[in-house]
Specification:
Elements: H1 2-31, E1 40-44, H2 50-61, H3 66-75, E2 85-89, H4 95-104, E3 110-114, H5 120-130, H6 135-143, H7 145-150, E4 165-169, H8 175-189, H9 192-200, H10 205-218, H11 225-237, H12 245-252, H13 262-265, H14 289-296, E5 305-308, E6 316-319, H15 322-338
Antiparallel strand pairs: 1-2, 3-4, 5-6
């Protein structure tokens, strides 16, 4: 009997040690920190797919133990409390730290950037690439007249509300919050100083954006922006049509045109400034901050005409008289003919 008792005691002791060892191992695994050379990010979209979360942790963050993570996640009720967002997984965090972070919804903002945007379609696509947002849903909002009216714009000028820059936002922000943020940034951009400059040149902020969009399309080099802006303002003040080639390209629907022909000038469109007086209904692109500020501070001169230089450098010859402009235009046309550009 004593021998059996000793055997039973040994087995019990062995099992106890086994359980203890398993417990120690599990504890160590639970407290094993993520070993990362740099912060990595987990993205959770509207599907709130738990399996995708685990896969990202395995592939991006070298999850110490998938089995133990799943056990912990179940105990902490995370699969039922998944929140969308972008979450930063940092070196030294433990699995409980990560689960608490994901469960709390304390996400890390993302920097979004947009510039060199021509159309609402371009804008919607660029934003959707950077946020958890559907491009078509955003485009529909941008094209909806009532949305523009809500923010104090017309459908044609709504695009001027978006000031190209870098903004810190949450990755899962919705369309309404995004638009509200852009209006807030627009209001901050159009401070009293810029409003006063716009008033001085006889334009509203929306009209400044429209003119700046033409200036930016017309001038390849930024150092010409103030000169071109001054030229167009001179024409506006004299009641002359702008006769801006970029507006013709916009009206035709082909910004790649290298040569404007008479047939293009005859296109019926409120954006064809060879046929309509004043500014077009809205911007022909989203102007950069540089273009807006140069338009607000135009160079003072007497130029009324401009023509691309015949070296096809992208720079312009500026003229005060039509006769001088005609000479510049002939030289440019001859350069195009010589190179076979029709």
């Amino acid at each position: 009997m004593k021998k059996k008792s000793k055997i039973g005691l040994s087995i019990a002791t062995f099992l106890l040690l086994l359980v203890l060892a398993a417990g120690i191992y599990t504890y160590r695994m639970i407290m094993t920190p993520f070993s990362l050379s740099e912060t990595t990010y987990i993205y959770i979209d509207n599907e709130k797919d738990y399996e995708k979360v685990v896969t990202q942790l395995k592939e991006k963050a070298a999850l110490p133990s998938e089995k133990i993570f799943r056990q912990l996640a179940e105990r902490m009720n995370y699969p039922n409390k998944i929140k969308t967002g972008r979450y930063a997984i940092k070196d030294g965090m433990t699995m409980p730290d990560v689960i608490r972070l994901l469960r709390s919804g304390e996400q890390t903002p993302v920097d979004i950037t947009f510039n060199n945007i021509r159309t609402a379609e371009n804008l919607a696509g660029r934003i959707a690439q950077q946020l958890m947002m559907d491009s078509m849903s955003l485009l529909n909002a941008l094209k909806e007249p009532t949305t523009a009216e809500k923010f104090g714009f017309k459908e044609e000028t709504f695009i001027s509300m978006f000031i190209p820059n870098t903004y810190e936002v949450y990755w899962d922000t919705n369309i309404e919050n995004f638009l509200n943020r852009m209006k807030k940034e627009y209001n901050a951009f159009w401070n009293e100083g810029r409003k006063e400059k716009a008033k001085k040149i006889g334009l509203t902020p929306e009209e400044v954006s429209t003119l700046a969009s033409i200036v930016e399309e017309e001038a390849t080099y930024a150092d010409e922006y103030p000169i071109v802006a001054g030229l167009y303002i001179n024409r506006l003040n004299r009641g002359m049509r702008l006769e801006a080639d970029p507006t013709v390209k916009y009206a035709v629907g082909d910004v790649t045109l290298r040569r404007i022909l008479f047939k293009h000038l005859e296109v019926e469109s409120p954006y064809n400034t060879y046929k309509v007086n004043g500014l077009p209904p809205g911007p022909i692109r989203i102007p950069s901050i540089k273009a807006i500020d140069c338009t607000l501070s135009p160079q003072k001169h007497n130029y009324l005409f401009m023509c691309a230089k015949d070296d096809l450098s992208g720079r312009h010859n500026f003229a005060v008289t039509h006769a001088e402009h005609a000479r510049n235009a002939r030289a440019y046309q001859q350069a195009l003919n010589k190179r076979g550009i029709y």
